[in-house]
């Protein structure tokens, strides 16, 4: 799979085409629009009532992870169609009867397009000029079409207490994800991005049993690859003046009160077919392991 050809429109079309081909298993949805009027696609896979969310593309410079989640959708659909067991362990057909997986590979389409095509891809002239005046190189830009960091825009307790001057959930992309979280009977969130190589699990305050469950699940996921494991909690965020406040993972843990994990893979400076395949093998069964372990 050549990531160079996978711009936003290609990802959107392939998600729609996959849902059309596997219509008995997959439904395609548009969950909202970006500030520059790009649709945010989601595929809903499986027949169960309980849902696991798999989200990537929160940051504009995270160019590889949306493609890896798209490949994950294809692999699960083919395994279901052919009655395969992935890694000779996971019966995708059985799991997809019991569970529903909601894949949102590209939550921030404006940021993704900026990385690929420069700031001129933003159609709104006010937003375009504002972003250009920021003088951030396109390859380092992580925000959305208004320059907002979507990884810190959610109404968590920490955000409300320490960021009074800034409105949480101000962005269209944030609102779209919050609506989806509230619509489904969610049992967990897996957020994928490039940073280090670790699994970060998020704690609920004063919820010992739930936190023990999150730790156990994180340990299961950690064993799937050479990941380190890190605990994230609100007290940690409070000590770090700006780190992590208002993250989607913390919002999901605090408000939905279900396990939430951030899956990080190392940043790939130069994407090749070999390292892309290696990164895909690191994560491709994590949602299945998560469902299997609940």
Architecture blueprint of SSEs:
Elements: H1 8-21, E1 26-33, E2 39-46, E3 50-55, H2 65-82, E4 85-86, E5 90-91, H3 92-98, E6 99-104, H4 109-117, H5 125-133, H6 157-162, H7 172-183, E7 185-195, E8 198-202, H8 208-222, E9 228-232, H9 234-239, H10 248-256, E10 260-266, H11 273-283, H12 286-293
Parallel strand pairs: 3-6, 3-7, 7-10, 8-9
Antiparallel strand pairs: 1-2, 2-6, 4-5, 8-10
Helix pairs in contact: 1-2
Your description of this structure?
An 8-stranded mixed β-sheet has the order 1-2-6-3-7-10-8-9, with helices on both faces. A two-stranded antiparallel sheet has the order 4-5. It has 12 helices and 10 strands. Helix 1 packs parallel to helix 2. Strand 1 and strand 2 (39-46) form a beta hairpin. The chain starts with 7 loop residues before the first helix and ends with a helix. The chain has helices at residues 8-21, 65-82, 92-98, 109-117, 125-133, 157-162, 172-183, 208-222, 234-239, 248-256, 273-283, 286-293, and strands at residues 26-33, 39-46, 50-55, 85-86, 90-91, 99-104, 185-195, 198-202, 228-232, 260-266.
């Amino acid at each position: 799979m050549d990531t160079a050809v996978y711009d936003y429109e290609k990802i959107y079309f392939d998600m729609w085409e996959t849902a059309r081909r596997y219509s008995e298993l997959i439904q395609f949805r548009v969950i909202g629009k970006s500030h520059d009027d790009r649709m945010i696609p989601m595929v809903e896979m499986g027949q169960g009532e309980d849902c696991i969310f798999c989200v990537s593309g929160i940051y504009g410079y995270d160019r590889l992870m949306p493609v890896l989640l798209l490949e994950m959708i294809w692999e699960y659909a083919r395994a279901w169609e052919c009655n395969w067991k992935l890694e000779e362990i996971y019966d995708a057909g059985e799991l997809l009867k019991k569970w529903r997986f909601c894949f949102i590979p590209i939550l921030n389409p404006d940021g993704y397009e900026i990385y690929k095509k420069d700031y001129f891809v933003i159609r709104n002239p006010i937003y375009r000029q504002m972003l250009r005046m920021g003088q951030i190189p396109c390859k380092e830009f992580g925000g959305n079409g208004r320059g907002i960091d979507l990884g810190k825009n959610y109404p968590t307790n920490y955000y409300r207490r320490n960021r009074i001057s800034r409105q949480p959930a101000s962005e269209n992309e944030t609102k779209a994800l919050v609506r989806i979280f509230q619509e489904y009977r969610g049992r967990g969130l897996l957020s994928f991005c490039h940073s280090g190589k670790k699994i970060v699990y998020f704690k609920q305050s004063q919820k010992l049993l739930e936190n023990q469950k999150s730790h156990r699940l994180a340990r299961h996921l950690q064993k799937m690859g050479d990941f380190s494991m890190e605990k994230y909690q609100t007290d940690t965020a409070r000590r770090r003046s700006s780190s992590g406040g208002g993250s989607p993972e913390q919002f999901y843990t605090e408000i939905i009160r279900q396990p939430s994990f951030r899956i990080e893979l190392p940043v790939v400076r130069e994407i090749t077919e070999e390292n892309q395949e290696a990164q895909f093998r690191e994560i491709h069964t994590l949602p299945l392991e998560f469902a299997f372990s609940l």
